[in-house]
Hints:
By secondary structure, this protein is mainly β. The chain has helices spanning 3-21, 138-143; strands at residues 27-28, 40-48, 52-60, 75-78, 83-85, 92-100, 103-105, 108-121, 124-132, 134-136, 155-167, 172-182, 195-197, 205-212, 217-218, 224-227, 230-234, 249-250, 252-254, 257-259. The strands form 5 sheets. Strands 2, 5, 6, 11, 12, 14 and 15 form a 7-stranded mixed β-sheet that branches. Strands 1, 3, 4, 7, 8 and 9 form a 6-stranded mixed β-sheet that branches. The protein has a 3-stranded antiparallel β-sheet with strand order 16-17-18, with no helix packed on it. The longest helix has 19 residues, at 3-21. The model is unreliable at 1-25 and 143-151 (pLDDT under 50).
Amino acid sequence: xxxxxxxxxxxxxxxxxxxxxxxxxxxxxxxxxxxxxxxxxxxxxxxxxxxxxxxxxxxxxxxxxxxxxxxxxxxxxxxxxxxxxxxxxxxxxxxxxxxxxxxxxxxxxxxxxxxxxxxxxxxxxxxxxxxxxxxxxxxxxxxxxxxxxxxxxxxxxxxxxxxxxxxxxxxxxxxxxxxxxxxxxxxxxxxxxxxxxxxxxxxxxxxxxxxxxxxxxxxxxxxxxxxxxxxxxxxxxxxxxxxxxxxxxxxxxxxxxxxxxxxxxxxxx
Length: 269
């Protein structure tokens, strides 16, 4: 294994560890006192109205800089939006964030490694989806065999939805929020994290579009029947809650109430 490859792999491993182990001392709410470079790129995003969007970026020593780096020079920097715009009758909100391609912390040059966006629903952090992207320096790209063809488009599309499920033992229904990555034609789900080359990002814009699916979906469609009023939960038959024909329905708990249908809870009179 070459020295370049080994150094790149060590950087990536340390980055994965420090991202989730950043102490409060390694968090900065902005780039103040970090001597940000004039060279930069932007991340813009369009999200549904009523949803909050937060952004931050993990900066690390890269490319052999700061040889004494032991995981304590990394910085998680909060990204303050340059602009937030929304028309009075608009169903979306537009954000713009600017990221310097290099900052300096205690004399050590740091480079962006993992920017992230967190979309939070109206119910708060119980319903949030985090989107991450990787920025690789040239030696990390080629030293670790990253295929340049694997880089995704600067235009990123996310379709977000609520998934609801029934907990048979508790008898209640809960829902989670998640977003799927689609290709630029919005026809195919992409499983890879977005990756970008650091040396190609100057003055470029990475744009995210977050779209909401028109309705919530059950986690297991075998346990629910879609009716004109909404989804009805199937009653237990023998050892499972899978629906039978004709289906037998049951009530369920949701938000502390006894309900007949999801999401309206009560059937119309």
